[in-house]
Amino acid sequence: MKVVPTIISVSRAGLSVCGTQINGLLKMPFDAGVVKDLNVTGLTELAAQIKTFVESNKIPASDLVVVLDAETYFEKQLTGETDDQLAGEVQEFVDSVPLASPSSKIFKVGDKYHAVVINRRLYESVRAAFAALGFAVKAVVPELVLGPVGVAGTFDANACRLILKKMAYVTENSFVGVTHAGADDSWVNQNRKTATLLAAGAILISVLGVGLVVWQTVAARQTAVARARARTAKIVQALPSPIPTPAAATTSAKLADLTVRVVNASGITGEAQKVKEALIKVGFNNIEIGTAATAVKTLTMFSSRVSQEDRRRVLAVAGGTSQENTQAQFDVLITLGKVTP
């Protein structure tokens, strides 16, 4: 693996590539019908196009730094002053973004905090195509954070040089990789300094929702730990075996129609999958999972379509607290927060 990374800029129109082993700036416009409105509509075609592009230009495999052009993400400057205000502001913004697979993170630029939401599918499709050719993503950064290193608006060979000179800063402000948290453990600092870890070929960050600050007692947090360690067992205890009657069949059909999203903001790998499997055993079918920056506590948000009985079923799995969400994109939105052993 090469020591010096290759830099890739992703825009709506295509890719721009530069590096110490590349002469100038190489460009690869997306073929017609491959990418539309930030969504990959031809995954196989995109992978084949990238393979041909890399091989024809003899680009050697190396680490990658992916720069997301401003037109490929949604960004909002936050105005809240308290953790509660910021959490609510970010969640409202993420819910408003018209993306099927959003990932989000908070960045500090100057003295202002910004929420950035990207389309995970677009990034992951590009990443997977390069990974198949031996490349490995080292950092993914929005154009927004590159102003302090001298990159403003135009991606060219000079921008590439500036990015390579400031790799420590770039890595610290990445959607992927590990950064070091300081002494300030506030909600904002956790979201700014704690980068979400990704497995190669799996999902990029943050998905729908970032950490929400909710009200929960210490006892409730301790109960959440036990549920996280034995969720399946908890379900068996909480719910009796279904009785094959018409009423039971109606309940199952209703559960199957509800849309559910589970966001892992606990910092523990695999928690969202555990909750998904437990909810499937209860009777839910339409479930999506994702990850987000660390949340302080677990919160479940319900739409008015979810009955009180079904809410109890969900809370028996997820723990934490709940609230009503009249503008929800999902009938059930679970944000799994940190648990205290």
Features:
globular, Nucleotidyltransferase, domain 5, Alpha-Beta Plaits, about 350 residues, 2 domains, five-stranded mixed β-sheet, 11 helices, alpha/beta
Architecture overview:
The structure is a single chain. With 341 residues, this protein is an alpha/beta fold. The chain folds into two domains: 2-193, Nucleotidyltransferase, domain 5, CATH 3.30.420; 218-336, Alpha-Beta Plaits (2-Layer Sandwich). The protein is 34% helix and 24% strand. The chain has eleven helices and 15 strands. It has helices at 43-56, 83-96, 120-131, 157-165, 167-172, 187-193, 218-229, 231-238, 246-257, 271-282, 308-318; strands at residues 2-10, 14-18, 26-29, 35-36, 39-40, 62-68, 73-77, 102-109, 112-119, 136-142, 259-264, 286-291, 299-302, 321-324, 332-336. The strands form four sheets. A five-stranded mixed beta sheet has the order 3-2-1-6-10, with helices on both faces. Strand 11, helix 10 and strand 12 form a beta-alpha-beta unit. Helix 1 packs across helix 3. The radius of gyration is 22 Å and the shape is globular.
> Which class of secondary structure composition applies to the elements?
alpha/beta
Instruction: Give the low-pLDDT segments.
Output: 177-253
The number of E-state strands comes to 15
Order of helices and strands: EEEEEHEEHEEHEHHHHHHEHEEHEE
Shape: globular
Overall residue-averaged pLDDT value: 75
The CATH architecture of the largest domain comes to: 2-Layer Sandwich
In the sheet with the most strands, the strands line up as: 3-2-1-6-10
Number of H/I helices: 11
Fraction of residues in β-strands:
15-25%
Q: How can the largest sheet be summarized?
A: 5 strands, mixed
Distance separating the two termini: 39 Å
